[in-house]
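Record filed below.
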Amino acid sequence: MASETANRWLGRPRRTLHYGDVSKRTVILVNPKAGSGRAGERAQAARERLASAGWPVEVIETERAGHAVDIVRDADDVRAWVGVGGDGTLHEVVAGLMTHDEGARACLALVPAGGGNALAHDLGLHNPLGSVDGLIAGHLEPLDIMRIDDADGRRHHAFNVVGYGMAADVARRAERWRRLGSARYTWASLVDVARRSVHDAALLVDDEVIEGPFLFAIACNTIHTGTGMKMAPEARFGDGEFDLVAVRPMGRLAMTKLLQRVFDGAHVSDERVIVRRARRVRIESRTPEILAVDGEIEGSSPTEITVLPAALQLATPS
């Protein structure tokens, strides 16, 4: 069952979907490297659950970075996609789905099995097959997607977060330190606390201009990011907006204390933390700087982030 927080966060009545062409297959995309082998076991459990409900189902293991994007993009006979892995796996499935026309996108379910499972935290998925059970029951919720347009014409999509400044630096360092498991985000954050890099940018948030400097700015479609951090405690993934969290420069000790408060969402009460609900934000930086899109290093500033309301349908726990 979804947690009380997840139920409150979904924000609108759940609708039951009556599927059309039930002959279409459901595809389980599994990252075999996720979760130290846990992903393979959970993919098999999901296959058995779907098959027992009479759903035509296929399991495909991804073989390289970007493979899930290619698989989803090239398929047009799929009823639903089930991503088994972490946020990186789900990011690729979403990227593939967003290449399809709006009315032709299959629905999405997730089975958490990675180091970071932001959306699973928001849904309160204590049962890893909870989203699969919701898929079978036809319990779907709208999932907003953030579109990221870079100055050079490149486009990306995010279901979780888009990070600039320290948020992107931490993601890049954490990717290099994957051998540390989920602790890599904590260690990467501590390195950036020591560096205390300041980023000079302006944020154009809908009709408001917020001048820098900043330690970081992060557009959040979900409450959680990383390994259970409540970066945007009031965010709702299906409300047609995202929460922008920007942090002003501060000393190392203050930064350390602030990062500790992120895990329960208490950091947003700090006067140096700016929170805005928005539909669009433009990050104007003096020089190009990397972005972290759902934890992946993709794109750079200057960039514009726009919410696409109800771009996908997400299976939620029964």
Summary: The first strand starts at residue 15 and ends at 16. Residues 74 and 96 are 8 Å apart (CA to CA). The domain at 149-310 is CATH 2.60.200.40 (Tumour Suppressor Smad4). Confidence is low (pLDDT under 50) at residues 1-13, 16-20.
